[in-house]
Specification:
Blueprint: E1 17-18, E2 24-25, E3 35-41, H1 47-56, E4 60-65, E5 70-75, H2 80-86, E6 90-95, H3 111-114, H4 138-142, H5 145-148, E7 159-164, E8 184-185, H6 191-194, H7 213-222, E9 238-243, H8 253-265, E10 270-273, E11 283-284, H9 292-314, E12 318-322, E13 356-357, E14 366-372, E15 391-394, E16 414-418, H10 420-423, E17 451-455, E18 461-467, H11 470-488, E19 490-492, E20 496-498, H12 501-511, E21 522-523, E22 536-537, H13 555-560
Parallel strand pairs: 7-9, 7-10, 8-9, 10-12, 12-14, 14-15
Antiparallel strand pairs: 1-2, 3-5, 3-6, 4-5, 11-13, 16-18, 17-18, 19-20, 21-22
Helix pairs in contact: 7-11, 8-9, 11-12
C-alpha cells in the first residue's frame, strides 16, 4: 500500500472543486477565515435537500457529487461540524486540518533504503525476456505473464485507472500506453503536507508524478513490451491516471471519491487502489475512544466510500485493492495506535471488527490482494485473513530467502518504472544521505543494484527502482484483470468495450493458482528479525485460505481457460 502504506486509512476532506472537464482546483480561493469540509448526506436524501441543510448549518457548497451524496463546503462558523452532524439530512462533516509535512520515505515499501547495507543478491536466471530488464521481474514469471502475452498482451480499448499519486507519462515505457484524453488530476497539492506548489494553480499537470508511487504501480500493470526497459503484466492496455493521492502520500476522501465516480461515469474497465483513506486506519461507526464529532466524520467517510465503490462497480469497473502492510489479520484487527494520522495526535483505539472498516480494501466489490515474495511465502508485512482476502500476488519481500545469498536483497522486491524527479530528491534515508540520481541523471554507485537507467539512441531515458508492499501486489492482479477483459470483453453501447466486473472477478478467482497454507500454519518470522507482532496464522483450505485467498493470480491460466459464466471459483 502507498504512503504510510503500513496500516490503512484515507483522511479527512481535501478541498476540490470540479470543473466541467473533471479537473480540480484548490479551495484556497475560499475566504481566509473559512474552514473547509466534506459533508455526506444521509441515505435517501435528495441532493437539493442536503444543500438546504448545509446552508441552514452555516455552510456554502463549493462543489457536489450527487451520485454519492457528497458535498465540498466552506464555513466560517466554529460550530459548523456540530450543526451539520445534528441535521437529520446529513451524516456528518469531515474538516481539513493542517499538520507538518510528512517525509516521503515509506518504511515498508523502501525497507532496502533503511538497511545498513543491501546485498546485491543473486537474482535467479529467468527465461526468455521481452525487454532488457525483464530478467529481474520474478513477479511476471511467477504469475506466468511472460507466457500470457503470447496469447493476449492486452487490448488498447481496455482502460486501467491508476488511482494513485499520479503517473509519469514521460517514461518511455509508460508513454506508449498512456491515455491522455481520459487522465485527470483530482488532488491539488496541499502546501502543509506536499510542500510548495510546482504550478500556480497547485494542480499538477496530468502525466506527472511528484510522489513516485503511482508511476511504479502503472509500470507493473502496463509498461510497454517495446524492447526497452521492462514490461508490465498487460503491456498493450491503456493506462489512465486518476490522481487521487497527494505528493506526500496521503489519500483524502474527496479526491478518491471523485476519482471513483469519474471512473464509473467514463467507463473505465479496471481501477487499481494501492492505498487507504486517511486519517483513520480503521473508520468506525461509533468507536467509544473517539469523540462524537470524529465518530460522525468516520460515518461520513464510510458512507461516501461505499457509495463510490458501488457506483463504479455498477458502471462496469473492476475494483482491485491492496490489503495493506500492517502485518495484521483484517478479521481480527489489533488496537489502532496510528490514528488519526492527519490533523491531530494519534491515540489508542480498540477496534471492533463488526463496526470498523479499512477502506477501500474492506469496501464492497473490492478484490483484496495480499503480497508474497519470490519464494511464494506471505511477505512478513502483508495483511491477510479469510474475511477480506481475495487473491495473492507478487509484492516483494526484502527479507525473503533467509539462509541464502538473496536474503535482504533488493532483487526480492518489485522493479518498476519511477520518476527521475523523485530519484533526484534527497536525502532518501540516513544510509543514503544524497539523492539516488544526480542532477546530470547519473545513478549513485551505492544504489547501482537498486536503481536502473535505460536510454534510447535519441537520448531519451527511463528510470526504474525496487519497491515492496501490497501496493506492488495489487497491480499484478489488476494487470491480470485487464488481460481478462481484453480476452473476453465484448463491444458495449456506442463504440464501447468491456466486461461485467462480476465475471472478471469470478474468472480471476477460478484461474488463480491454488496455494495451501504453510506448515506449521502459525508462521513466525524470527529468522527474519521480526517479533511476535508479525506472527500470522493461516486459516482455511487449499481452495481458499487467509494467506492466498483463491490462490496466486495466474495470467496465463486467465487467458487460456475458457470463460464460464456462473461457474464457482
Amino acid at each position: 500500500m502507498s504512503k504510510r502504506f503500513t496500516a490503512g486509512a484515507v483522511a479527512t476532506a481535501t478541498v476540490l472543486a470540479l470543473t466541467a472537464a473533471g479537473m480540480g482546483v484548490p479551495a484556497s480561493a475560499a475566504p481566509a477565515s473559512s474552514r473547509t469540509f466534506t459533508v455526506v448526506a444521509e441515505d435517501g436524501v435528495a441532493a437539493d435537500t442536503a444543500v438546504a441543510a448545509i446552508r441552514a448549518a452555516g455552510g456554502t457548497v463549493v462543489s457536489r457529487s450527487d451520485e454519492v451524496g457528497m458535498f465540498q463546503v466552506t464555513s466560517d462558523r466554529a460550530d459548523f461540524a456540530a450543526r451539520a452532524t445534528a441535521a437529520p439530512a446529513l451524516i456528518g462533516a469531515a474538516e481539513q486540518k493542517a499538520i507538518g509535512r510528512k517525509p516521503k520515505l515509506d518504511r515498508v515499501e523502501q525497507e532496502n533504503q533503511l538497511a545498513a547495507s543491501a546485498a546485491a543478491g543473486a537474482a535467479a536466471k529467468r527465461g526468455a525476456r521481452m525487454d532488457p530488464l525483464d530478467d529481474k521481474l520474478w513477479g511476471l514469471e511467477m504469475i506466468r505473464a511472460d507466457k500470457a502475452r503470447k496469447v493476449e498482451p492486452g487490448d488498447r480499448r481496455v482502460t486501467v485507472g491508476v488511482l494513485d499519486t499520479g503517473v509519469d507519462a514521460s517514461n518511455p515505457d509508460i508513454a506508449p500506453n498512456f491515455n491522455w484524453s481520459l487522465s485527470r488530476n483530482f488532488a491539488p497539492d496541499l502546501t502543509d503536507v506536499d510542500g510548495p506548489c510546482e504550478v500556480p494553480s497547485c494542480l499538477d499537470p496530468v502525466g506527472t508524478d511528484d510522489g513516485g508511487h503511482g508511476t511504479h504501480v502503472a509500470g507493473t500493470i502496463g509498461a510497454a513490451a517495446n524492447g526497452f526497459g521492462l514490461s508490465g503484466v498487460a503491456p498493450k492496455v491503456s493506462l489512465v491516471e486518476l490522481k487521487g493521492g497527494q505528493d506526500s502520500g496521503y489519500f483524502f476522501l474527496d479526491p478518491v471519491v471523485n476519482a471513483l465516480v469519474y471512473a464509473g461515469r467514463n467507463g473505465l474497465d479496471v481501477v487499481n487502489m494501492s492505498f487507504y483513506v486517511d486519517p483513520w486506519l480503521y473508520n468506525c461507526t461509533a468507536n467509544p475512544a473517539d469523540s462524537l464529532e470524529d465518530q460522525a466524520e468516520q460515518r461520513a467517510i464510510i458512507k461516501a466510500m461505499k457509495r463510490a465503490l458501488v457506483f463504479a462497480h455498477n458502471r462496469g469497473v473492476t475494483l482491485v485493492g491492496a490489503l495493506g502492510n500492517n502485518n495484521e489479520d483484517l478479521g481480527a484487527p489489533r488496537t489502532d495506535t496510528s490514528s488519526p494520522d492527519y490533523g491531530a495526535e494519534p491515540y489508542d483505539r480498540p477496534i471492533d471488527n463488526e463496526s470498523c472498516w479499512d477502506l477501500p480494501a474492506e469496501g464492497p466489490h473490492v478484490i483484496g490482494v495480499s503480497s508474497v515474495g519470490p519464494s511464494g511465502k506471505k511477505s512478513d508485512f502483508s495483511n491477510y485473513g479469510t474475511e477480506q482476502i481475495s487473491v495473492a500476488a507478487p509484492g516483494g519481500w526484502f527479507r525473503d530467502g533467509f539462509g541464502t545469498d538473496t536474503y535482504r536483497s533488493p532483487a526480492n522486491m518489485i522493479l518498476s518504472t519511477y520518476p527521475l524527479k523523485v530519484l533526484q530528491e534527497g536525502p532518501i534515508s540516513p544510509t543514503i544521505p544524497d539523492p539516488r540520481v544526480d542532477a546530470d541523471g547519473n545513478i549513485d554507485p551505492r544504489v547501482a543494484n537498486e536503481v536502473f537507467k535505460q536510454c534510447k539512441a535519441n537520448g531519451e531515458c527511463g528510470y526504474y527502482t525496487y519497491l515492496q508492499g501490497t501496493s506492488m501486489a495489487s497491480p499484478h492482479a489488476a494487470g491480470v484483470a485487464a488481460l481478462i477483459v481484453s480476452r473476453y470483453g465484448k463491444p458495449q453501447g456506442r463504440g464501447g468495450f468491456g466486461m461485467s466486473p462480476d465475471l472478471v472477478e469470478q474468472h480471476l478467482y477460478r484461474t488463480a493458482a491454488e496455494h495451501a497454507c504453510p506448515e506449521p500454519r502459525l508462521q513466525q518470522y524470527r529468522n527474519e528479525g521480526r517479533d511476535e507482532t508479525y506472527d500470522a496464522y493461516c486459516a482455511g483450505g487449499l481452495n481458499f485460505n487467509g494467506f492466498y485467498g483463491y490462490g496466486i493470480v495466474d495470467a496465463y491460466a486467465a487467458v487460456k481457460t475458457p470463460l464460464k459464466p456462473n461457474a464457482r471459483p
